[in-house]
Amino acid sequence: MSLPGQLNIPNRLLLGPGPSDAHPRVLAAMANPLLGHLDPAYLEIMNETAAMLREAFQTKNPLTFPISATGMAGMETCLVNLLEAGDKVIICQAGFFSLRMVEVATRCGAEVTTITKPWGQVFELSEIREALQRIRPKALGIVQAETSTGSWQPIEELGKLCHEFDCLLVVDAVTALGCIPVKVDEWEIDAIYSCSQKGLSCPPGLAPVSFSPRAEATISKRKTKVQSWYLDMTLLKQYWGAERAYHHTAPISMTYALREGLKIVLEEGLENRWARHLKNHTALKAGLIALGLHYTAQDGHQLPQLNAVRIPDGVDDMATRKKLLMEFGIEVGGGLGDFKGKVWRIGLMGYNSKSSSVFTVLAALEQCLRSAGAKVTPGSGVAAAELAYQR
After folding, report:
1. In this predicted model, what pLDDT tens digit does every residue of 241-267 receive, in sequence order?
2. Distance (Å, whole) CA 220 – CA 89
3. CATH of domain 270-390
4. CATH topology for 24-266?
5. Does residue 345 have a known ligand-binding role?
C-alpha cells in the first residue's frame, strides 16, 4: 500500500461554534511525555485538574471531573445516571441541543415532557413553574447557552424553583463554561456538563461534569443499574476519588491540556474573562449590524461567545462560508435544524475572543458579502467595531 505523506495542516482561524483555536500554552502542554493512567505523577495532575474545574464551575461538589469523551458524553453522563425507566423529566426545548436532550432522555426510558419556545427565545420562570406544578418531574433539563441559536437562557433562579418541587436541575453548559457566568452552587444546579474545545481553549476530547450532593444521593438510590457502564458515576468516582480503582485508560495528553486550559482561565480571573467576552461581542455585534446582519436570539439574551445571525436574502450560505474558509482561512458555522441554510454562527470563544478576531472576520465577511451582491458600505463593519471598542 502507498502511505500518505506528512501532515500538511492549513492555518485556520476557527470562529465557528467549536472547536475554537487552542491556546498555544495548551498545545505545548500536550507535547509532554506520556504517563501511565495510574502513575502517582498523573494522579496528582488529576487532582489539580479537578480542583481547578471546581473553581471554574464555582462549586464545592466532590463529584466534579472531566469525562473521557466529548461534550455529548457529558450530556449522556448526566441523564443516564439520574434517570431510570418511567421517570418524568421536563426538557426546555428552544434549539437543536435541547432536542438532543430529549433524544437522550427518551433513550433512558424516561417520560419526557417538553415546553417549547421559538428558536432564539428564552423561557420565563413563570412558564417553567407552571410545568413543574403540572408534571412534578424528577428532573428538568435546560441549555444555558444554546449553540444553535446564540440565545442565553436565564437560569439563575431555576435551581431554587426546581427544589421547591423536589426536582433536579440539569444544565447544558457546553458553550457557556469559560465564557459567561456559571455558578453551580449559588444557582443550586444539580448536574451540569460542558466540553473542552470551546471556552476552555483546548482540543475536543473531554467533557467536564459536576454533580451536587442531592444528585449523588439520587444516583445512590437507583433501583436499576446505570444504562451505560462507561459513563456510570458510581464506577467513575472510584477512579477519580480516593480509591483510584482502575476504570479505563484516561486520555493522558488531554488531561495535560485541560489542566493548562483551566490554569489560564483562573490566571485571567473568571470575572475578567466574562468581561473580555462581552467586550469583544459588543464590537463584533456593532460590526455585523453595520454589514446588514440581524441576530436570531432575543434582544437582551444574546450570547457574547456565539453570535448567530440571519443570512441576507440572495446570499448563498455554503458559497460564502467556502469563500471565507478557502480565501481567508476563517471558519464560521452554518445553521442547524430549523436554521439550516438560514443562519451563520460566529464564535468568539476563549483564546479567540480578541479584537484581532473581530476585525479579521468583519473585513473578510464584508468582501464575501460584496462578492455575493449584497449592498454593503465599504469599511462599515470594521469602523463600527472600532467605535464600539472606543466607548
Report:
1. 888 999 999 999 999 999 999 999 999
2. 19
3. 3.90.1150.10
4. Aspartate Aminotransferase; domain 2 (3.40.640)
5. yes
